[in-house]
Amino acid sequence: MSAAEEATPRPARAPARPAAERQAPPMDLAALIEDADTRILVCCGSGGVGKTTTSAALALAAAEAGRRVVVLTIDPARRLAQSLGLEELDNEPRKVEIPGIAGELHAMMLDMKRTFDDIVVSHSTPERAEQILANPFYQTLSSSFAGTQEYMAMEKLGQLRAADTWDLIIVDTPPSRSALDFLDAPNRMSRFLDGTMIRLLTAPARAGGRAGFKFASAGLMFFSRIISKVLGGQLLRDISAFVSALDTMFGGFRERATATYELLRRPGTWFVVVATPEPDALREASYFVDRLSSEGMPLAGLVLNRTHPPASTRLSATRAETAAEAAAETGNGDPAVALAAGALRVHAERMTLAAREQRLADRFTSAHPEVAMRAVPAAAGDVHDLDGLRTMAEALTGPDGDTPTGVPRTRVLPARRA
Ligand SMILES: Nc1ncnc2c1ncn2[C@@H]1O[C@H](COP(=O)(O)OP(=O)(O)O)[C@@H](O)[C@H]1O
Ligand SMILES: [Mg+2]
């Protein structure tokens, strides 16, 4: 195959087969991360599936392939952060020293509050910035509002892209329950910050007493009074002050959110959806894949992370189980036979688990036959150092057919013969 053909990571159309035998197209992540046209890679998926680890592993692989890479991690596990040289939240990329590496790996951990503060400072006069930063409502919003993290991740991505010093930016996404939150946050955030909702909520308070009735419906008044009771009048006043102070920035926020969202649509941006072989994670992945396609955002494929392929697939679960029983019956307490029976049982369990995982993967592929797939086996322990990342990178980017058991890396178990 020529280099040009190899460097075509677009998901190939799956061959027409009966649904049960449908095979996911292979995902060529090696070609994708080495391609000079690939500038942004976004790793999405529901919580705990391995987005952060996958982002770091792909970043390492791309840097080892000679590219100048920055990985924007969000909430990395402590030991992984340490192995990337990230001791604390740090809003600037730091170079990870890796002896003999062809390219460069830089890593950073998103500091959402500082990112927000920076926007405020760069968008207002020093006095106004000071007012906003000191506002208690702002402090809550910038550190704990649902969606702030997603919005700031996108904001940071926009900044990294604008700097244009990176061949490749790999973005991890926040640990939200739903993968869709990442795409929805900018919109939600700018809607929130353009103050419509805040204005409505604070209208009666600002208009003062009964006069508010003229402007606000009874329902809204009621709602606002409850809010006022629950949150306290001081908070409402804080919100009001915050909104007035932000007035000059509204356009800025909306424009930024829109621009960054558009960035995700530009050629050179690819999404990698990560899921574990579990119904919930795959359902989230499924929603996300549909959303990407309706938004016209390119999907590299699905990483099926933490699969449990058996060491050998020649002996089925049933045959292993039967053999284990036979051994136990005829072994007469011979410890060697008991050991063999135990090993057969472990193999049977492993085959059963792998079959379940493959079934879930097949179900996903039946619903999304065009989505390329790569299965990444579970490592024995956590992936928290460069060696662990390298092993994972190999599983993510190694040649599709080159596995010890001969099972292609799109799968957990070999395909049934038609
Ligand atoms: N292939 C794998 N094998 C073993 N452990 C893994 C694998 N992928 C991820 N993990 C572990 O799973 C945990 C969650 O991974 P993480 O990347 O933090 O998920 P997310 O970012 O999606 O919340 C971490 O402890 C990580 O080390
Ligand atoms: Mg994470």
Automatic annotation (TrEMBL):
Region (Disordered): 1-25
Segments traversing the membrane: none
Domain ArsA/GET3 Anion-transporting ATPase-like stretches: 38-310
Keyword Nucleotide-binding: yes
Pfam families for this protein: ArsA_ATPase
GO molecular function, one term: ATP binding
SUPFAM superfamilies for this protein: P-loop containing nucleoside triphosphate hydrolases (SSF52540)
Domain of life per record: Bacteria
Database matches in InterPro entries: ArsA/GET3_ATPase-like, ATPase_ArsA/GET3, P-loop_NTPase
Alphabetical list of Gene3D superfamilies matching this protein: P-loop containing nucleotide triphosphate hydrolases
Swiss-Prot/TrEMBL keywords: ATP-binding, Nucleotide-binding
UniProt name for this protein: Arsenite efflux ATP-binding protein ArsA
